Amino acid sequence: MEYKKKLIEVALPLEAINKESAREKSIRHGHPSTLHLWWARRPLAAARAVIWASLVDDPSSHPEEFPTEDEQTKERQRLFVILEKLVKWENTNNQDVLDEAKAEIMKSTDGNPPALLDPFAGGGAIPLEAQRLGLEAHASDLNPVAVMINKAMIEIPPKFAGQPPVNPDAHVSKMKDTTAWLGTSGLAEDVRYYGEWMKKKAFERIGHLYPKIKDEHGDEHTVIAWIWARTVKCLNPACGCEMPLASSFELSKKKGKEAYVQPIIEGKTIRYEVKYGKGAPEPPKTARGAKFKCIRCGESTTPEYIKDEAKAGRMGATLMAIVAESNNGRLYLSPNEEHITIANVEKPDEYPSQELPYDPRNIWCPAYGLDTFDKLFTNRQLTALTTFSDLISSVREEVIQQGSSQEYAEALCVYLAFAVDREADVSSSVSTWINTIGAIRNTFARQAIPMAWDFVEANLFSDSTGCFSNMLNWIVNCVRILPCGKTGTVRQFDAQSDNGLKNVMVSTDPPYYDNISYANLSDFFYVWLRKALRDITPDLFRTMLVPKTEELIATQYRFDGSTDKARNFFENGMLDAFRRINSYVSESVPVTVYYAFKQNDNDGNDATASTGWETMLSAIIKAGFSITGTWPMRTEREVRTIASGTNALASSIVLVCRKRPAGAPICTRRDFINTLKRELKPALQKLQASNIAPVDLAQSAIGPGMGVYSRFSKVLEADGTPMSVRSALQIINQELDLYFTEQDGELDRDSRFCVDLYTQYAFNDVKFGEADVLARAKNTSVEKLAGRGVLYAQKGVVRLHTREEIPEKIESRDSIIWLLTQQLTHAMEKDGVVGASKIVADIFTSDPEHAKALAYRLFQIAERKGWAAEAYAYNSLVIAWPEVQSKAADMQAARYTVNQMILFDN
């Protein structure tokens, strides 16, 4: 069947999308990701761009309207401008921008856009952005926590859009003026009011557990947090003290406000005093893991001893310090008997006591006795969280008494339950104190439930870090700006079963092989949601914990440690899921799949492959799809890459897929390779011309490469057996290598010699004889290159000059592209775009473009060799190239103007 090519199958303003996606990481207040924690969410900018570009026709689909390539390019640029506006965070709810984008969707779909389905909805970014673009959104997920998040984002807001708040404190004049409560502002106001109502009622019940504290002058202060250290008895029988298992005694590292805990040994006991200034004592933690020494006698423990003590119930906790609010910032005070005693409360009557799942990769605390959910919290934390959870049902009754519907009352309860979940995240006994900024680090600072040796108890009733009002404000700010399009549909459903939908578009972000154990991690939140909402949505919370057996991840420990069984489970499950997707989707719109897995395996023949990529691609192709494109979506802030000193792969690769025709032909290995050679090279040239980052090029090459492989029903090996996806990927990588090697032929002979020397030795020493043989083979000489400042060559030793050693001035005679590439790369490292631009502005030949091409090649070499800093340097130059060119052109124009003025004056 003939179909119109969509924009996403031809071209995207990738840099603009990536820039806005990365920028989203630093946007917090009001961002939907702050509604409830979920792992590996897709940025809204990327989701919005992918959906829109999947629906809007590429100009090449309308040759009657855009007959020439120039006209198509011009129209494409017009669409790019719309898309570049659409992905900006500031335009998230800009109605003019959204209306312009929706108009293009309607034009390309004859006024009848398809509904969108995301069968692995997770954190809900894709269904949310579909709804924002005016589509009917369907979200499903097996995980009930994900289902609740999606309901809160796309199902609840449209139902109550424009409705004024029902709480008694809402301003009377505003209540009558319905225009004052546009969108979800009324809903947000009620969430705020009833959240504060909950806090007030909770304080009436348990406020006495959170006393104020007096300083040395007798002035009273509100406590922000209590800082505890776990303890075990010293294994030295002659000592026997309760030794603290503290990883640090530093309370504040802020300049001029340093504070620390000083342990005071008194006989066989230890008490703790807070002191100001520098000079914190060495902590008892001696190494990574459970390795400590007794601060009284110096005896070292073993991890096994601490595990045994903890599992036997003999691990305690001691209060080391109290943090309070003051007019001058954080106030650090020594513990006192009142605060030690009041924290020693009994457990509440009902609390989550389910066992933590076995997950040695992501959940580490069960090894130390914290094996049920109640053990992740102190008794005071349990009391607070159960009190707030129990009050949610009281909110429902209160709202109904105000004359509102039960449905609206229950909707409010969902958001308030999310506030309790946020509080649980910062109010567990694995939350820790950040002594650089004076704040609480939440439980899920990483994608794991860790073990913490010194932990923090937050004061939920303060006005500072970890308080309930802060948690509530995150929810309110988010609810206030949620879109209110067509009411979305959210279901708890596994992706392999038939949901009955037809002729929809699918955009989805499936699990990444074994990267994240979503079900295991989300149990932490499920137990509290279940306590708060079980009576409201009983079907969703009928199980004690999140369903795990059906979860599509390749976790070996669920298969007795078998890698093969885990891989087969994942691939078979994904195959079934994509077969279902194939039965749902309309042929007029491509399917888009996000995937972000990078794992290199050696197959025993010095060939590498990625199991995650292989299994996903295999499932998609076997399910009857052809891959028509791959787009790298870089979603991390640039500073993160710089800080790590490595080249991070794009956070996601978006696979663009179409249904493969039923009568697709069969081809041989030879035909496949010949077709690949013919089509891959121009595709790679296009990618390079579009300035794709070198770090993303290899994954992007999978698109045209697998496009060739997947258009055939089978590719047959010489022996008649079908070629595997792994073999196809390896052939594509070989062709990619060949493409870059062929580019060496376009270099001058001196540069070819330098590339060979770099490949073998980097900037390290090599014997003169070996370098001389290599130079003669390239028809150049070591002496010549040493004279040009390219090489160090003395006393029988040769090596390439590092970028810091090469001359900065460009010599016009006998151009060496290697030298120019190193000079440009060094200028970027040293002076950024301006530095590189000054060099380019002095050159009126095509040499700079050849230098950029060589940077791609050198990146590939460095990446393969594991030279992270080298790879990063070349990647940075290519990414900045458009700016470098633009700046250089401005410099040249300015010089021309000055010269013309001088001529005129003369």
Automatic annotation (TrEMBL):
One Pfam family cited in the UniProt record for this chain: DUF1156
Recorded superkingdom: Bacteria
SUPFAM superfamilies according to UniProt: S-adenosyl-L-methionine-dependent methyltransferases (SSF53335)
InterPro entries to which the protein is assigned, alphabetical: DUF1156, SAM-dependent_MTases_sf
Domain (DUF1156): residue spans on this chain: 11-81
Name recorded for this polypeptide: DUF1156 domain-containing protein
Originating organism: Desulfitobacterium hafniense (strain DSM 10664 / DCB-2)
